[in-house]
Design a protein that fits this description.
It is a single chain. This protein is an alpha/beta fold and about 250 residues long. It is built from 9 helices and 6 strands. It is about 40% helix and about 10% strand. The structure holds iron/sulfur cluster.
Length: about 250
């Protein structure tokens, strides 16, 4: 653990930051965004932890535990938010349970307002097949937005290498929809860097990644992809939809 990491961990445990105004948060983004654009992921997380204390969380889709591992090294006990849509593969739920059991994090599983059965009753069965945008809005976008209310900043595992839509993901940005600071410590990481970090640190990986699912979402909207195919092409295949709305 670096000296900066130690001080970030101390800040995380001790700081109870007062709520900042949106203008103050945007000012932070302006300054830190330029300063940290080329910084290592660990330093970016250290900055976020030292700046926001307990008003900072990370989110994980449980495709792997890279960001959870990194953040728990910087700030043991950090909040890791997982969006439990009710449609996850068993392997994804198992990865979440393994992360909770093996990493020093505070795992928070959040759920939509309605169960799948309640949603079926109101909107009809298999809404994902008829209106995936509405299904994602109900089961992903709204619950995450609610869960983030108590934070000033959130981190995602978004990487520019993943899809063309993510090329411009800033390391430190302003999320206009959620009105929060959005931190993407892994934005500049290549696939090879992710693989190296996993190998060197024995990081948990969702077993589906080794079974043809390089990008993992809800089971009704995720299919296997062939070697060489765009890793994201297995998500909402054939619908024209490419993102769930969380990052738009
Ligand atoms: S990914 Fe599919 S099942 Fe999951 S919330 Fe979106 S539309 Fe619904």
């Amino acid at each position: 653990m670096t000296a900066a990491t130690t001080s970030a961990a101390r800040a995380f445990r001790g700081a109870q930051t007062q709520g900042r105004s949106e203008d103050e948060l945007k000012e932070l983004v302006r300054h830190a965004g330029a300063d940290l654009e080329l910084a290592p992921a660990e330093v970016i997380i250290e900055w976020a932890v030292a700046t926001f204390g307990e008003r900072f969380c990370i989110t994980s889709s449980m495709a792997d535990a890279v960001l959870s591992h990194l953040a728990s090294t910087v700030a043991p006990g950090i909040d890791v938010v997982f969006l439990d849509t009710g449609y996850h593969f068993a392997e994804t739920v198992g990865t979440r349970d393994a992360v909770e059991a093996t990493l020093p994090v505070n795992l928070i599983s959040i759920t939509p307002k309605q169960t799948v059965e309640e949603q079926d009753a109101e909107y009809g069965k298999d809404l994902f097949a008829r209106d995936p945008d509405l299904c994602c809005a109900l089961r992903k976008v709204a619950p995450l937005s609610d869960a983030l209310q108590k934070y000033e900043a959130w981190a995602t595992g978004l990487r520019r290498a993943e899809t063309h839509n993510r090329v411009i993901a800033p390391v430190i940005g302003w999320d206009e929809k959620k009105r929060k600071v959005k931190v993407s410590p892994l934005a500049r990481w290549s696939d090879a860097e992710v693989e190296r970090y996993i190998a060197e640190n024995g990081v948990l990986v969702n077993p589906l990644q080794y079974d043809g699912y390089p990008s993992i979402g809800c089971w009704p909207c995720t299919r296997r992809v062939a070697p060489g195919e765009d890793p994201r092409s297995g998500r909402w295949a054939g619908t024209g939809k490419t993102e769930c709305g969380i990052h738009q």
